[in-house]
Amino acid sequence: MPATFDCIVLGLGGIGSATLAALARRGVRVLGIDRFSPPHEYGSSHGETRVIRRAYPEHPDYVPLVDRAFRQWRELESETGRELLTRTGLLLTGPRDGDTIDGSLRAAAQHQLDIVEIPRGETRERFPHLRFEGDEATIYEQDAGFLRVEDCVEANLEAAAAHGAEQKFGETVLNWSASEAGVRVNTDRGDYSAGRLIVTAGAWATRLLSDLGVPFTVRRKVLLWHPVDESARDAFASGPTYMFERAGGVFYGFPCLDGATVKLALHTGGEETTDPDQIDRQLHQSDVEPVANALVPRLAGVDPAPARHTVCMYTMSPDHNFIIDRHPRFPSVTLAAGLSGHGFKFAPTLAEALTHLSLEGRSDLPINFLSLARFAV
Ligand SMILES: Cc1cc2nc3c(=O)[nH]c(=O)nc-3n(C[C@H](O)[C@H](O)[C@H](O)COP(=O)(O)OP(=O)(O)OC[C@H]3O[C@@H](n4cnc5c(N)ncnc54)[C@H](O)[C@@H]3O)c2cc1C
User: Fold this and answer.
1) For residue 15, what are the domain limits?
2) Beta partners for residue 44, in sequence order
3) Is 43 contained in some domain?
4) 73 alpha carbon – ligand 1 mean position (Å)
5) What's the domain count of the chain?
6) Same structural domain, 108 and 203
7) 114 & 166 share domain
8) I want to staple 370 with a disulfide (CB 3.0 to 4.6 A). Which of 36, 173, 228, 324 is the partner?
9) pLDDT for 269-305, tens place per residue?
10) Is residue 98 classed as helix, strand or coil in its secondary structure?
11) Are 271 and 325 members of one domain?
12) Residue 326 CA to ligand 1 centre (angstroms)
């Protein structure tokens, strides 16, 4: 007889770890399964930091969701005694009519967000380690900052365990099936049955949710840590998180957290891959060039040659918005997929929504725009 649970969470990365904690807090008898040992370097929730910000122009309902997430991350900090969210402010620079500036200003106006434009003279004075050009606009989102991504996953797993969740690491789910009686999950170590299943498998949704017929694509993304000259380290350590829209794409970077380097990356673009297990984890000159040529010249005292790197994955949905819904054919199966490179900040709120959908079949959170109904599946 397979071991039996109220609910199984498949995948314990950014979203799954938060979902496991949310279910366990509600007293659900829950099992979480991951093929690796989260936090790990093989999925989408690693690399030190994730930006958290409110100015979301893509859809008005993202803003109330991220508002709630800000509060929930602070609650997780209180629950676990960890520091997870650091408020640094976020500086956005780019063409006035570009997506970064224009989109953020539209979101700010619509939601009365605390975003101010900084006149050029003032940018140089306030941020001497950053370089601004020509007639670019610069705006500042005061309450934004970053999350310590691995610590967040650890904190959620710790909270889940404290509330009685069972966790299996290093165990791969081979397949799952659902019927009116519930779900069965078959792994490389055994079988489990449960009333419900929540699939939070990140890039592996391409395989585990292939029956949905949604054409997910996986993008290879490289994070680079560049050495900072001693003269600029203090300014980078106490400065904001920053994003520059340039002709070559949207680039971003974080404050100096280790006293020696800054983490830099290109948000847009990325080589597409079909199999997350075959992703190329080597660093190539073509990974470094865009950042070295377009972002590093805007940063004082930053070496164009990175000291280290890691490779991560964006799982893109066709419209780049998340999918949070019940499975159209199996109501006992709920899923989060296609987080499209911007989902981490929302993890506790998406976890709450997944918990509502799985246990009650509906949620009062504003998640209708994330439903599968927008695709013909
Ligand atoms: C470079 C980079 C920068 C980003 N920057 C930001 C940012 O600044 N702000 C932001 O909000 N978001 C950002 N994101 C996006 C965000 O990090 C992701 O949307 C989020 O982490 C995805 O979480 P997930 O739980 O869906 O996937 P993952 O964290 O990858 O979790 C999926 C888990 O499922 C497990 N799994 C898969 N298949 C199986 C199986 N068969 N059996 C058992 N376990 C399985 C995997 O081992 C993995 O642990 C960024 C992403 C990347 C890659």
Assistant:
1) 3-47+150-214+319-374
2) none
3) yes
4) 17
5) 2
6) no
7) no
8) 324
9) 999 987 999 999 999 999 999 999 999 999 999 999 9
10) coil
11) no
12) 19
Residues of the chain with pLDDT > 90, as a percent, come to 94
Whose Cα sits closest to atom 37 in ligand 1? 201
**Residue pointed to by tokens 């408020």:** 87
Are residues 176 and 200 both part of a single domain? yes
Strand 271-273 relative to strand 217-227, pairing: antiparallel
Same domain, 310 and 170: no
Q: Which residues are catalytic?
A: 46, 49-50, 263, 267, 312, 345
Identity of residue 224:
L
Regarding whether 301 and 331 lie in a shared domain, the answer is no
Start-end of H helices in the chain: 14-25, 62-80, 104-111, 120-126, 149-162, 205-208, 230-238, 285-294, 347-360
The interface pTM score, or ipTM, of the predicted complex is 0.99
| Residue located nearest, by CA, to atom 35 of ligand 1 | 11
Q: Is the CB of 50 under 6 A from ligand 1?
A: yes
Cβ 134 vs Cβ 306: under 8 Å: no
Residues 258 and 120 in one domain: yes
